Amino acid sequence: MLIPCPWCGDREDIEFTYGGPGDVAYPADPEAADDPTWARFLFFRPNPKGRLAERWVHTAGCRRWFNLVRDTVTHTITPA
Amino acid sequence: MSRLAAGGRVDRTRPIRFSFDDMPYRGYEGDTLASALLANEVRVIARSVTYGRPRGVFSAGIEEPNALVQVGDDTMLRATQVELVDGLEATGLNGRGRLSSEPDTGRYDKLYAHCEVLVIGGGRAGITAALEASQSGDRVILVDEQAELGGRLLGAAWNDWLETSLATLRSRPDARLLTRATAFGYYDQNLVLIAERRGGGGRLWQIRAKRIVLATGAHERPLIFANNDRPGIMLAGAARTYVNRYGVAPGKRAVIFTNNDSTDLVAADLTRAGIIVEAIVDVRAGQAIVDTSGDEEGLRSVVIRSLTGGDSTREIDCDLLCVSGGFNPTLHLFSQAQGRLRYDEGLACFVPDAALPNVDVVGAAAGDLGGRGQGTIMPYWVVPSDGREWSTHFVDLERDVTVADVRRALGTGMQSVEHVKRFTTIGTGSDQGKTAGINETAIVAAQLGQPVDAVGVTTFRPPYVPVSFGLMAGRNRGDLFDPIRVTAIHPWHAAHGAVFENVGQWKRPWYFPRHDEDMDAAVRRECRAARESVAVTDASTLGKIDIQGPDVVEFLNRMYTNAFHTLKVGSCRYALMCQADGMVFDDGVVMHLGPDHWLATTTTGAASAVLDWMEEWLQTEWTDLRVRLTSVTEQWADVAVVGPRSREVVAKLFPKLAVDAQNFPFMAIREGETSGIPVRLHRITFSGELAYELWTPSWYGLALWEAVMAAGGPLGITPYGTETMLVLRAEKGYIICGQETDGSVTPQDLGMSWIVSKKKSFIGQRSHSRSGAARSDRKHLVGLLPVDGDQLLPEGAQLVLQPDGAVPVKMVGHVTSSYRSATLGRTFALAMLRSGRERFGTTVYAPLNGHIIAATVTEPIFYDKENSRRDS
Question: Which domain holds residue B512?
Fold first, then answer.
């Protein structure tokens, strides 16, 4: 799979590390969250068949994090 | 001999000697093992895998299911693909390979290439596509699995087109032609993996192309009838190839069995070669071969019957039966690229349904079967069994699967072609069912009364052909399997007999045996030196992250469980970090080096993970923090001088430095120089003893080590390795992240609440107040003293509360570290134990294979609880 790094361009996927879905915000005030809310943040992630917003980091390149949208069926990638 | 007097592409002036099953034979350059064996009238090449039936050459190419051979250590080769070379020694197989117990000495390489157009298949369609694409100056790569380009043209009557076209192509500077190169896998965004065979090895090509042209041709498929597997029965197109390309008559008296026009060419070429074509049995004329007879040497006769009426049969003697049931476009790569297939009634085969972006299919692969001469075809698959068993109607020759097996699978209620494949193993041989797959579909469709299209084909997956592990590994084997990292001091360790162990990619001294010491003896001696006098170890592999910027304190406060705003320049502090789930991730020492300048150490194996973790937070959540991180693991050498007499060694090396406890206290940092070597000194201990970690830029590392050895020589300074380091720290109850912890352990579980700040927020804090974190039955870090102090608990041993409890017994914990201690004069261990802190003084049991070790639960600290030695 080729992944478009916003800084380096298209590179092989082995240069990258997957950072999970991209639309899971870190709670602004963790202490204010009750246990179920906090558990949901920690352990629940979307797993759609289709388009998924993701975080990636160009580990073996510029080491920058970025977002993209990947189709989990076709691996078609579009910028976030 | 069945070699024709003339014709073919073999070089009759270049004879080649070879042996098969220990018998000597002769062939010519340009032969394959299969063509040479046919030329020598060797009909039986192998035995079938399940029934042991004799099998001969069935095809002339990659799709061969029968003629499997072993050549040297290379196993499961297709005789139709083995190029004849002088001295070749081959033996036939029975569908199972023989793996060599010796390492593969072949030379394998990996190559990477990019091009505008990658053409796969060097037949007429592929060459045409490559000619067209290379006109514009685009980079074109043409790959073909055979030794020669030309595809089916090589098996047809000769003409000039091929020669002229190849000459043109070779003259184009941006066209590259690869032969003996099989494209076996298609991956996302037009990456194709190609196995190139080279004498005794090969090359793994990874080619990324803007556009791919699949000119992969078509495989002929057989018709299925009783006893259709005898030597002498082969695909009709293959018989023609042996005549035209290799100048070999694969038989003397031939019968042709067909359902399409392609056999017209076969009959003509066989006749021209002097082979008597006894009959053409055409299902379109209502005739079929219903059975064959033969012996251990293969086919002797065929039995023909009318399909339209009457039981009368006719038997014809022959030694060659050429079968054609039509052609299957070779669409494995197209399918791997997620291309969809559609059954074409008129062509009686599956063809590409819709175009793919950037992947074109041309020629026979696209369903243009004119070149193969298919013309009209009557879809026909299986000849009736006339009331007899279906047990010799072979569908998959390599797997020895018959129509009876397929009927049995359907009889169990299976309807999916995928299920039938798994039940019968059709298509799972090393040929991947290239001659069997579509016939399976047709049989299933007929039995279920469904259209062929509805049944569909099984999924094509890479690799298209078997690929050796040697090719996949390439040069990444032995010392080149993974990078080997060594410290600046490594040459000294090697020269002084260190036994090394792998810690991640690092080679670390494990222990330094003297004379014939075993590990236990060496570690006892090394431990004693560290506890009683002075010892030294190479700690350079510790992960080191240089941290700079005005917001470092805030960053560290968020990152670690403990706080840093009070840590002064010139001091360091032990530090612990958790993941967001509150579980311990890593520990280390944080050093305050100067204004806005800090450095954090990590566990050796976690260096890159911790750096990545810190970067992730800075880049994705804390973008307002002005902090810069740099890995300096390799930039610093770290010589740890350890033991009650370490101060004497350091004083000798740094005479200008005040090294007394008052002026250079525990956790302080000092700068110094010895023999021109700049050194940063830290009073850090991982042994519980008075100790100094001497850091110097890596290129001084070896010199510093040697200076320490020289200064400590009169005191008998003793180098030690990782094993002694582990024993010393365990005696003090110091954890190792990844050994005591496993991603399910909180700081509180470790009894380390003292390092968890309540005055600031940090990653994982919220998780520490989850109800689950407060449960009293969580596992706690404890010490274990085996009741018999000679018994060593194995690390990983499970712990139970009763020595003879009923099975299944409840497991309450596990041993995380276990050693023999010279200092304690006994064995001891660390463990994670349920409600462990409530069990001090009680006995737990480790049931092992055949015996039980009883151990007393203690605090997880065995030595100098008051830290008087550390702080001395």
Answer: 490-540+636-728
Answer yes or no: do B559 and B667 share one domain.
no
Collapsed DSSP state (helix, strand, coil) of residue B530 = helix
Helix, strand or coil, per DSSP, at residue B437? helix
CB contact (8 A) between residue A65 and residue B620: yes
Among B619, B767, B770, whose Cβ lies nearest the Cβ of A64? B619
* Of B675, B682, B636, B683, residue with least CA distance to B654: B675
Distance from CA of B722 to the nearest CA of A (A): 30
B93 domain residue, yes or no: yes
Cβ-defined contact of A42 to B771 (cutoff 8 Å): no
Number of domains in chain A: 1
Judge if B695 and B721 occupy the same domain: yes
Per-residue model confidence as pLDDT tens digits over B71-100: 988 899 999 999 999 999 999 998 888 888
Assembly ipTM: 0.97
Look at A38 and B767 and tell me if their CB atoms are within 8 Å.
yes
Question: Which of B1, B89, B14, B12 shows the shortest CA–CA distance to B42?
Answer: B1
Compare all CA atoms of chain B with the CA of A58 and give the residue at the minimum distance: B612
Domain CATH for A15: 3.30.2270.10
DSSP B655-679: TTS--STTTS-TTBEEEEEETTEEE
Query: pTM of whole model > 0.90?
Result: no
Q: What is the CATH number of the domain that holds B20?
A: 3.10.20.440
Q: Compute the distance between CA of residue B488 and CA of residue B429 in angstroms, rounded to an integer.
A: 52
Q: Note which residues in 24-53 of chain A have CB less than 8 A from chain B.
A: 26-27, 30-31, 33, 35, 38-39, 42-43
Q: Which helix (H) or strand (E) holds B162?
A: helix B161-171
